[in-house]
Amino acid sequence: MHNLVLRFVVCVLVSVAVLWQLWFAPVAIAADLENGARLFGANCAACHAGGSNRVVAAKNLRKPALEQYGMYSLDAISYQVRNGKNAMPKFKKLSDDQIADVASYVLSQADSNWGKS
Ligand code: HEC
Q: Which pLDDT belongs to residue 117?
């Protein structure tokens, strides 16, 4: 008898946890992208406005270029933001979370051709 009640309680708790995650996960992703957009405007847009590259034009942030240079992943973008490369400075003041947000934003924009498709 006790066993049944316990099972029922566990079952309800698991269901609530799953529903909770389904409900809030999209909100969390949206918030990250919003934060990423803000960080991009403050830190990257000077050289990468609209997904371009004002310093080395070929190395822009559009999907074909990212794929060509092996940059079409969260890891690759995060690494470069953290460590810099050639004329691109490193961003020591950005936390790991902030770098993840801005990298997610870059990938999502690349997927939608920076609003041009
Ligand atoms: C001062 C100018 C400058 C700023 C600011 C800057 N970048 Fe860059 N970025 C560059 C240059 C130059 C390159 C090309 C580096 C190379 O490979 O020689 C580059 C390359 C990249 C690439 C690879 C593009 C490709 O097609 O291979 C990504 C991704 C990137 N930057 C993201 C960012 C992000 C995100 C930020 C902001 C946190 C940022 N950059 C800020 C100058 C800048």
A: 63
Pocket test for ligand 1, best of 47, 68, 69 (most atoms within 8 A of CB): 47
Residue 29 pLDDT > 80, yes or no? Answer: no
Q: Where are the alpha helices (DSSP H) in 44-73?
A: 45-48, 63-68
- Structure pTM? 0.82
Is the shortest distance between the CB of 16 and ligand 1 below 6 Å? no
Assess contact for 51 and 110: CB atoms under 8 A: yes
Atom of ligand 1 nearest to the CA of 76: 29
Tell me which residue has tokens 């997904």.
51
